[in-house]
Amino acid sequence: MAGVDNVAHDIQSILSSSERDYLVRNNGDQVKIESFKGKRVGLYFSASWCPPCRRFTPTLKELYNKEVSSKGDLEIIYVSSDTAEDGFKGYFSKMPWLAIPFSDSQTPNRLTELFKVPGIPNLLILDENGKLATDDGITAVLEHEQADEACSFTTEWIREFKHQQEEARRNQSLRSLLVFGSRDFVISSNGNQVPVSELEGKTIGLYISAFSYGTCKEFTPKLVEFYEKLKAQGENFEIVWVCVDDEEEELFKQELKSVPWLALPYKDKICVKIARYFRLSALPTLVIIGPDGKTVHSNVAKAIEAHGVAAYPFTPEKFAELSEIEKAEVITKKEEEENKPDGWVCDGNICSKA
């Protein structure tokens, strides 16, 4: 979780514009921003075109209807990244909270810059004084849904949540990463349930990807080759697919059947939690978890593309070894170029006169 600033933001000034001093509901009603004075505010950065957003919004809606709306001391505001009005309207029509009007595109951009929002979905909570209480409201919602506990976002509650997060990172285990609520299994390519306990003690790759993304389509065959080579060598290694796509379940099942590894269930809520926990910034991402349940490396996708199985087991010592090999190769190539007579060209397979 990123650092939380101690600036007291003026809600009226950060949410309004020169032409607007109100927010809107999905029925068109306008609500004056000044009515939020002394209340806590949640800024929900999201968009209709964002698959992780579409998966998380129903969870936030359930929390809002169950615990937030009746109390009246916290209001959530949709800060949209939509560029098409139809997408905005369709998505917002399912939200019970307020929004910055679609016609105002400058305020969402300004808020994104002001709070240095790294990506969406994102839920920031401002306290009664306009201070940023937490920049990780999404994880807070998911954690407490998993534990079936109330999620009030009071100052005391957020302080306890931060303490729990720090403890969770210190005590990270494979179970804390993969188990959610009563589900303590992953699934195989044929749909069978595999207990998480059977993966403990192995090196695990958490493959965070979306099969509809071009970069993931390109990388997956390389990862299949890497995986099969390691298994042939007898390595105690397994991959668990963390799908952050929003395609139909049948497409998910077809994709899972085409790969040799395991996966979290379709649209499992922990997928969003894992993406946030490891601060997902690129697709695909392959996080390596050691036999002790601790994180070995946050993303080895590029290392696999560059070195294949030679990069395994992705320890600092292994990367240091690969770095020395690369340096030696550069020196060798430079020496070969310096010693090569003028007029000769080498393409890696043959040297000939130009």
UniProtKB/TrEMBL annotation:
<dbReference type="InterPro" id="IPR012336">
    <property type="entry name" value="Thioredoxin-like_fold"/>
</dbReference>
<keyword id="KW-0520">NAD</keyword>
<dbReference type="InterPro" id="IPR036249">
    <property type="entry name" value="Thioredoxin-like_sf"/>
</dbReference>
<feature type="domain" description="Thioredoxin">
    <location>
        <begin position="174"/>
        <end position="330"/>
    </location>
</feature>
<protein>
    <recommendedName>
        <fullName>protein-disulfide reductase</fullName>
        <ecNumber>1.8.1.8</ecNumber>
    </recommendedName>
</protein>
<feature type="domain" description="Thioredoxin">
    <location>
        <begin position="12"/>
        <end position="163"/>
    </location>
</feature>
<dbReference type="GO" id="GO:0004791">
    <property type="term" value="F:thioredoxin-disulfide reductase (NADPH) activity"/>
</dbReference>
<dbReference type="InterPro" id="IPR013766">
    <property type="entry name" value="Thioredoxin_domain"/>
</dbReference>
<keyword id="KW-0560">Oxidoreductase</keyword>
<keyword id="KW-0677">Repeat</keyword>
<comment type="similarity">
    <text>Belongs to the nucleoredoxin family.</text>
</comment>
<dbReference type="InterPro" id="IPR045870">
    <property type="entry name" value="TryX_NRX_thioredoxin_dom"/>
</dbReference>
<dbReference type="Pfam" id="PF13905">
    <property type="entry name" value="Thioredoxin_8"/>
</dbReference>
<dbReference type="InterPro" id="IPR052259">
    <property type="entry name" value="Nucleoredoxin-like"/>
</dbReference>
